[in-house]
Amino acid sequence: MSDIARDRILRLAPGCRLNSVPGQEDVLLIPEGAMQARGPARTIIALCDGTRTFDALIEELKSLYPTADPARIESETAALLTQLRDRGVLEYG
Question: Does residue 92 lie in a domain region?
Fold first, then answer.
């Protein structure tokens, strides 16, 4: 498991936002460019809206993907959030 703070609120950093255009893939706009956001990764990014902790986000994902392995949800979410944090896209509230 990464060093994601489990009890702190997750939110996108200033200048970062999801951009949805009908008929196109969603992208995460960041100050130095853009990142594709598809499937569960897009859902995870959208849930980093400043209202949930890591633990609450995991519980939400488990309810959205009830057939997925809970341990895999947690480990892959932590890995994605760590990457986003390391790129300056994610911060704690």
Answer: no
Helix (H) or strand (E) holding 17, with range, is strand 17-19
DSSP state of 4: -
Retrieve residue 81's tokens: 């959030």
What does DSSP assign to residue 13? Answer: P
Is pLDDT at 1 greater than 60 in this prediction? no
Domain with 77 in it:
9-87
Rounded-to-integer distance, Cα 17 and Cα 89, Å: 9
Bin 7: left if φ > 0, else alpha if -120 < ψ < 50, else beta: alpha
Indicate the pTM of the whole model.
0.88
Q: Tell me the per-residue pLDDT of 36-59, one tens digit each, with 9 for 90 and over.
A: 888 899 999 999 999 999 999 999
